[in-house]
């Protein structure tokens, strides 16, 4: 009887370990490649992540500017007044000194020497930036031209400037009193009160139909020095 032919598949067992090894190698390559790919992806992700912005340093706050210094008040020492200005009624007149001796010689009256001059009673206060009494100025009112003809028309808020030998003082009109009888004027407490920084302007009061008749009343304007306090 002829021998059985050798079957080629009879050698398969010997080849299986090689195939298995190849398969294992292939799997290993796949796993290795996959691991390398994953590592690359992670690295790529890491590189692709934006770097957090670095916060800019907070600048130091700018120092606040020093407050503006208050303007210094000009100091005007007490001195003889030389001129009075009331622009709203067109007054720009020289001032003369009227002493107590002159008052006594006039029988207790103040009578300015001319119609265009104002008399400062020296027995009252002296204009100053640091006053201690009421300043008194007197002027004529006439049916002709005179310095205080329009005094009765001033209103509260009107500015009066008294120029002295050493500077100028501003006053603001506070009140215009009703005409006061000349005989009662020296005793009127509103007029003769000693108030630092106050200015009293006095002129005759003329009725609309006064004509040549002598006046019997006075117009009195009270002002207060500005910039005090």
TrEMBL record:
- Give this protein's Gene Ontology molecular function annotations: hydrolase activity
Positions of region (Disordered): 40-77
Give me the stretches of Pro residues compositional bias: 50-60
Superkingdom to which the source organism belongs: Bacteria
UniProt xrefs under InterPro entries: Sortase, Sortase_dom-sf, Sortase_F
**Protein keywords:** Hydrolase
Query: Can you name this protein?
Result: Sortase (Surface protein transpeptidase)
Q: Which organism is it from?
A: Xylanimonas ulmi
